[in-house]
Write a structure and sequence with these properties.
With 433 residues, the protein is an alpha/beta fold. A 6-stranded mixed sheet has the order 7-8-6-9-10-11, sandwiched between helices. Strands 3-4-5 form a 3-stranded parallel sheet. Helix 10 crosses helix 11. The chain is globular.
Length: 433
């Protein structure tokens, strides 16, 4: 949310970005008052300090039209003690001379200030190029080495470590009734039924407003990174607690990351039939956007339901890494279009010609044709459901990308349209007046 209201952003907000082939995670913070002692400004200060502790790079945004303030100097004093690179972004610099608008901010002692306009996008790309320059590009190819990386994610105290111990058959990770026991992601290699896995026990994702302890300062970012590094995520829910918005947020991040997903509803033992039915109906409503994932009702403590849980993990991994043949994809696409044509957009109806696979984990299907820029979301969901059903892609998100072909008869830039020979329409000068 963006508005001209001080203090609008309070909690930390995490979002994905990508510059060229370099992906990054950006953390937005609220206003930072380093000297705040109590009240909402003190809580916002703690949130900002948490983001500073998590970050690899810090961008300090100042107001170029207001000029340097006492608060800017206080923040700069704090940032100078941080052992990570800090970049000063002088915002609202549109229409101003870059040298003049940044001159005062050299006083902060944080290096060369950079003039930008966030509202107009001026200077943002060059700043981002500079910020990301030290970081290498990731490997493009998804390597399938046969080892399935499984992240166990969920809120604190839902039984993640207990589940891992039950899967391993030994006490490999600490598990006791105290939220926040796991402070960092733990990687454990093991075999189950002659298949190799790496289990990733993540720190519990608390609500962002409740993560203040220094010892937990890396929990959120490490958990999000563990989810992105995994092939399959097991989202653990507590059947004996209400399914919260935080559970939905974690599920949403898994979906946004494109990871295959299996949902494990833990602590299912000892509940009567009526309560179980209530929970299932509530889950269906609260997490309806996870209709592609399988739900399992388990007891990690008693080891109940784990065999079927891992069969779904194997199925989700197979779906995420599936290789989809272009001829079959195209046949399924054309059959779907014959069954239900895409709706018109103005005078034109999108024309879909062929499809091919553009990536794995998650599967990406690229559809080529004409006038595909305005295919509706509902029709995209129809295609997604069709592909998922035909190729049995249970347990993984599926992404569809549309590519519109250029019209070979359209005039190029700077080129004048020429009438075809024999056309009744002649040059303008020869028309009768």
């Amino acid at each position: 949310i963006v508005a001209d209201i001080p203090g609008l952003t309070r909690d930390r907000h995490y979002g994905h970005g990508k510059l060229g082939k370099k992906p990054f995670l950006v953390v937005d913070t609220g206003g930072f008052e380093p000297k705040a002692k109590d009240g909402i400004m003190h809580e916002m200060k703690r949130q900002a300090e948490q983001a500073i502790a998590e970050a690899d790079i810090i961008v300090f945004v100042v107001d170029g039209r207001t000029g340097i303030t006492a608060q800017d100097k206080d923040i700069a004093n704090k940032l100078r003690k941080v052992d990570r690179p800090v970049y000063v972004a002088v915002n609202k610099a549109e229409g101003l001379n870059a040298g003049v608008v940044t001159a005062d901010f050299h006083e902060l002692g944080l290096g060369e200030p950079h003039s930008i306009s966030a509202a107009h996008g001026e200077g943002v790309r060059s700043l981002l190029d500079l910020v990301l320059e030290p970081f290498p590009e990731p490997e493009e190819e998804v390597r399938d080495d046969g080892i399935v990386k499984v992240a166990i994610a969920g809120r604190p105290n839902v039984g993640k470590s207990t589940l891992i111990n039950a899967l391993l058959g030994e006490e490999r990770v600490i598990a006791f009734d105290m939220p926040g026991t796991t402070r960092d992601a733990i990687h454990i290699d093991f075999e189950r039924g002659e298949k190799k896995y790496t289990l990733i026990d993540t720190a519990g994702l608390r609500r962002k407003g409740k993560v203040f302890e220094t010892i937990e300062k890396f929990s959120v970012i490490k958990t999000l990174q563990s989810i992105e590094d995994a092939n399959v995520v097991i989202l653990v829910l507590d059947a004996q607690q209400d399914i919260s918005d935080q559970d939905a947020h974690i599920a949403g991040f898994v979906l946004e990351s494109g990871r295959a997903l299996v949902v494990a509803v833990n602590k299912w033992d000892g509940m009567d039939a009526y309560k179980r039915q209530q929970i299932k109906e509530f889950l269906e409503h609260k997490l309806k956007f996870l209709d592609f994932a399988r739900f399992h009702y388990i007891s990690a403590l008693k080891g109940q339901g784990l065999d079927t849980l891992f069969r779904s993990v194997d199925g989700a991994y197979a779906a995420a890494m599936a290789k989809l043949a272009t001829p079959k994809l195209t046949r399924v696409l054309l059959d779907a279009v014959a069954k239900q044509a895409p709706p018109r957009h103005g005078a034109f109806r999108p024309k879909m010609r062929y499809a091919h696979q553009g990536g794995m984990n998650p599967p990406l299907i690229v559809i080529h044709g004409n006038a595909l820029d305005h295919v509706s979301e509902s029709y995209t969901r129809f295609l997604e459901h069709t592909f998922r059903e035909v190729f049995k892609l249970q347990g993984t998100p599926l992404r569809i990308q549309f590519k519109t072909s250029e019209n070979p008869y359209a005039p190029k830039v700077g080129e004048r349209k020429i009438d075809k020979p024999g056309s009744k329409r002649g040059p303008k000068s020869s028309r009768p007046k």
